[in-house]
Amino acid sequence: MDGRLRGVVGTIAARVGSALLVVWATATIVFFALRVSGDPLEAVMGGPGSQAGPEAQAAAAATYGFDQPLIVQYLRQLWQVLTLQFGDSYTRKQPVVDLIAANFPSTALLATLALLLAWVLAVAGVLIAQTSRGRAGQLVRSTLHGLETIASVTPQFFLGAILILVLASGLGWFPVTGSGASALVLPVITLAVPVAGYLAHVMHGSLAEADAAPFALSARARGASEARVVLTHTLRHAALPALALSGWAYGSLLSGAVVVEALFARPGLGRLLLEAATGRDVPVVIGSVSIIALSYVVIMLVSDAIEIAVDPRLRPAPRRVQEVAL
Amino acid sequence: MQFRTTAALTSLCAIAALALTSCTSPGAASDTAATAQTGGTLVYATGDAEPTCLDPHVGGNYPQALISTQYLEPLVGRDASGEITPWLADTWQVAEDGLSWEFTLKEGITFTDGTPFDAAAVQANIAHLQDPETQSSTGFTALTKVESVDAVNDLRVRFNLISPDAALLESLSQPWTAMQSPTGIERGMEANCQTPVGTGPFIVESWEPQQSVILVRNDDYATPGPEADHDGPAYLDRIEWRFIPDAATRQAALAAGEVNVIDNPLPIDIAAAEKEGSGIGHLDAPRPGSVNRIELNSGQTPFDDVRVREAFIKSADPGPGITALFHGAATQSFSPLGSSEPAAISDESIFVTDVDAAAKLLDDAGWKPGANGVRAKDGKKLTVRFPVSTNQSVAAEQSLFEQIQANTAQVGFDVQLEPIDLATWHKRLSSKEYEAVSAPYTKVGPDVLRILYHSSGVTPAPSGYFGNHAMLLNDDVDALIEQATKTTDDAERTQLYAEAQQLILESYVILPLYDQQNHFLTNGVTGVAKLGTVGTPTFVNTQLTA
């Protein structure tokens, strides 16, 4: 195995290892937290305050194994997680895998589109700001900076409510809720805007640094236009920290989906998780959190790969060069 | 029982909704000119939790009652005046000793899967409800006095009781005990939860969790219930039953015409709908059983002293808050029972606000003014722990509690409001860590008084649930309620319940607030009716007007 491949395998192994650790910790915390706060039998019997008779309770306890020692129940839960089986939902009486399979695509699509839109908005904003010169340009730049800040601190449920008010209810451009492509627009914008603001903010900082670097000066000296300097030289640099943040951003988009899915009445992992957590549906909570953790790890790997592709410095040196150096 | 899960995004969305009322409704204004049409799809958006099973025999909560009203029918109905009416059963008789009831069933009715509705079907349904495997809670509780069901002949059944149960008809009118096809039940819980089969005006076609349930018209519908204005099938082709947890989103979807009916609207949206020319219809359908009320725990200090309870009630002054916070959509109650209960009695004189009298009562009880205006006795502060279930109390109600907190503070109470989730709330109740609490309870008929105020209700059921949160131990109340349960004479029963209610009110263990809120807003439809049982809407008469 050459060094480059070994490096990649090592990285993947470390990531998978930490993923397993995260999933184990999550499953353990969720299992015990939901047990401490109440009886899972309640969830099975239709929620707190259910007045099921003792026979009904005994039957349900036997079906779900609640009559066994806690440690046995815990180990069985772990085994289910390890085999990605997760068992059956306490409240929906369906396999957790089916529930996740039915809900994951919708959330993944939402988060992916939102990340793409966030990048488009951030890059567009940075380009406009960078290429605006003069007195008018100053105004454009400070406006964009202000927008960045507002965007990154706007709570999603507030932004979503405003978008519904103005674009859906007021102007009637998009449906308030629904399952078609047009119903995706507002949720995607709602999720993307805060992330776009954050990404743009980070890019601006590093763009200013790159702008003052010698290679930018020499490009300008060769007569390159401002747009050309940004597009071919400085933006690459500016994009690096933003790329590194994208993995994190994707994770935050997955959790932001809880709010957005509830607001726009979309099916998805976020809503499934929210319902399961309030209903003390242990297998569903553990299952969906595990899947979110796993997809987070996958995204981190992808963003690492993209970073390497964009920044030559991160690539391991080719063997031939190493030999020469020796 | 009701368990309401509402998305907790309300406060800012309420502002949004406020703005919304000023920027919408042009599309709806032409409703008067539009004519009702036959066919089409009605879209209903619910803010209640999505059922985990569409068969209301399993578990048994309000979201299941809401949707199953569209496809299941009970043995008997209940009209707006509270009178029990025929439905799947035509007539009934109770034996002298009250220990058996015979029902004659309507002839020629079939479930939508072709199974005939007969005595065997009724037997199968009661067996299903009483089978522990079904995991029924509400239906199971309603039938605790039913020992067995005999088929006298094809269309005649006899219910044999363990002891007389005057509330049996009311129990059988609830959606949680409605009749389902035995063939459907035999498919097993999983299949029956997905597509339960009834005799109702609609049929469950499919269910996409978190998205919608599709109901289609039952073309052979033959048993119009008490609210139907015509014989035969419903006018609508289909109902798309959607789950939209956020109230502001539901309202926006209604205003935009994406949905035709919503439940659980915000008070401000109800007020806006009530305005002339809003184009939005409003159906007020208060739930039966108890009112929303604050119960004072008379089982421990300080409310074990009736003077302290009276002082709290005399200083709480909830009236102005109810008017303001609910924008006129809720009226103050002075009864233990909801206004839709014909047996309800009100006594406003008990709830007159009198701060001076309250202060004097506390003085007499030995609670002296102390630091920060909080009274104390023997070094103990006059603290009232008030756990609030955020799943069951809407924003307006929580604000009302805050006002009551401020009002009672003026005479020296230290009310500690604690917003918590439903599970923690139940835990606090069962460990008696509360002095005041507000708990809704939905049951058809005055028999709800037995669950909430009979002294047997202080002992928790095996599940840990107990109904008598006020910890009322009053032999006279017990005797009246027991007698009412056994009597089959309606007038006598009403009288007994009236006396029991008067005693409950005079014991100062409850502060009634208002009817359990249940409102529906409509856009582009006519003929939305409510059932007299638990206030669920029925669409058997409904037509689109768009």
Overview of the structural elements:
The complex is a heterodimer of chains A (326) and B (546). By secondary structure, chain A is mostly helical. In chain A, 79% of the residues lie in helices and 0% in strands. Chain A has 13 helices and no strands. Chain A is flat and about 85 Å long. The model of chain B is unreliable at 1-33 (pLDDT under 50). In chain B, the strands form eight sheets. In chain B, strands 8-9-10-1-11-21-12 form a seven-stranded mixed β-sheet, with helices on one face. In chain B, strands 4-5-7-6 form a four-stranded antiparallel β-sheet, with helices on one face. In chain B, strands 19-13-20 form a three-stranded antiparallel β-sheet, with no helix packed on it. In chain B, α1 runs parallel beside α8 (247-255), α10 (306-316) packs antiparallel against α12 (355-364) and α16 packs antiparallel against α17 (490-506). The two termini of chain B are 36 Å apart. Chain B is globular and about 75 Å long. With 546 residues, chain B is an alpha+beta fold. In chain B, a hairpin with a 5-residue loop joins β14 (368-369) and β15 (375-377).
Keywords:
heterodimer, A: 326 residues, mainly alpha, 13 helices, disordered C terminus, B: 546 residues, alpha+beta, seven-stranded mixed beta sheet, four-stranded antiparallel beta sheet, 29% helix, globular, membrane (chain A)
What is the N-to-C succession of helices and strands of chain A? HHHHHHHHHHHHH
Distance between the termini of chain A: 20 Å
- Can you tell me the residue ranges of chain A where pLDDT is under 50 for at least 5 consecutive residues? 321-326
- Overall pLDDT confidence of chain A: 80
Helical content band of chain B: 25-40%
